[in-house]
Structure formats: structure tokens, C-alpha cells
Amino acid sequence: NSCLSLRKQWYQRRVRGMAKPIKLVSQSKCYGGLQCVYEHESSILKCTMKFGCFLPPQHNNKRKLPIVYFLSGLTCTEQNYIMKSGFQRYAAKHGMVVINPDTSPRGFDFPGEHESYDFGSGAGFYVNATEEPWKTNYRMYSYVTGELPTVVSSNFNINMVKSAISGHSMGGHGALIAALKNPGKYKCCSVFAPISNPSECPWGQKAFAGYLGDNKSAWKQYDATFTAKEYEGPKLEILLDQGSDDPYLNDKQLLPENLANACSNNKQINLNFRMQQGYDHGYFFIMSFMEDHFNFMAKHIC
Fold first, then answer.
1. pTM assigned to the model
2. Residue 163 to residue 184: CA distance in whole angstroms
3. Does the active-site annotation cover 2?
């Protein structure tokens, strides 16, 4: 069966010395494919990390499959997207592998790490920290763009040339900077209510000051509004959906209009910014437009 086939492939790669060791935590059949959770020892973050892995029905054939990375928002683990979004139906339809990591390193007890929802555990902000005590472990940018793809490509039959990245809120910020800072690595970027200009919003200012220090010039490299201005890579397609009734939009935490302005002045970026009337910030909003986002990504990687 598919479970035995998957384990056989994993074992064969391990024997050949190709695979980075991963451990299956859970597995359920879903839309003809397999929704799995794996864990591994991260050399970048220096802790055990979990990630969701959806293998579509097509994973049993020999064709290398396209891959989507999804980055979640504040307080989330790998479970939120798996359980709440309904993405599996569309990933199965298009034959996409979907990988979604946790949102921060785990297993530490730094001072203040667990005291607030918007900093520390569950709030890694997809940066490489430079400040103590965070700089040794809070390196989510390098984990998401470097180590995780290496782990995935060594264990599954993936066409890494056909990669897309997506995310929500803090994870939308992470997806945007991953795409903008790595020209050509991801064929497109799909985001829901992203923190688009973190240097100018309370969430981002708190996180950046804590992880990167008080020198605001160091913040720009992790701010999509600034990196969009400097982007010089291949034409980058971005789909951004934002709910008009999102309380964080009104609180100036998201600032998508600043990103839209930056992209409008860069001919190498095509941003489709859609304001969705009546929707808020949560997963009912995400569910409502998930099919659109997978259709968008499929045009570029399938």
C-alpha cells in the first residue's frame, strides 16, 4: 500500500546516504493522498522541528511533483493549516506536495519567550535573529528557505524547480520575503492578509527590535515593502487577498497598501491585490479563497 511504499522509498534513500533523517509522527489518508506530520532534528535551529507534509495521490508514480510551502501566522503550529484550511482537496486535484512548518523553534525557555503571543514561541517572524539570546536558535528564515527544502527534497520525489510559497499574516510576511529575497527560487507567491510592512506596524516593530536590535536599517532586509522596491529577479507573480473587515487591517498591523505601492513601481513584480468585502482575518476567510490560490499556483508550477 501507499504507506509501505513511502516507507520503502525513505529507507532506500537512507541506505544510499541521500536522505536527511526524518521521523513519521502521524499519517491519515485524505483526498486519495496522505496527510502526514514529520519531525526531524534541525541543525539550523538546534531543536526538534515538526512539519506537515501532504502527499497527493500522484506521489506513488515516478514523476517528480511540484511543491508548495505554506507559512502560518502568530501562535500557530503546523496543525492549524492542516486542520482548518481545507487545502488538501486542491493540492490533490493539482498533484502538489504541500509542506507547512512550525512557526518558531521549540523546546527552549529563554527569558520572555512564552510571555506574549506576538514574540518568542509561535512568533519566529521568519527572520534570522542577531540579538541575544535569540540568535543561536531563532533562525527561521534560513530554516524555511534553506534547511527545510533540503530535508524535503532528500526524502520525497519533488521537482524543486517547480516551487511556490504561500502564507497567512506573519506567514504571509515570511512568504513574501522568501520570494523577494530569493529571485527565481519560487515561481510565484500567494498570501492571505500578510504583514506587508513590518517595520511600520506594532507587531513588526516589537519582533524586529527583539530579534534584530534597534538599528532600523537592519530591519529592511526582512520587510517586503522595502525588498519589493529593490527586487531585480525574474518576473514574480503575487496573489494577495485581504479581508475588508479584518480588524488588524484597521489597526494598521498589515499595511498591504504600502506593499502595493512599492510593487506598482517595480516592473518585475505583478501583484494582484484583491480586497475581499466582509471577510476578517481568520480561517473562514482563508478557506473561502483557498481554491483560487491553488489554481493560481498551479498555473505557475504544474
1. 0.93
2. 9
3. no
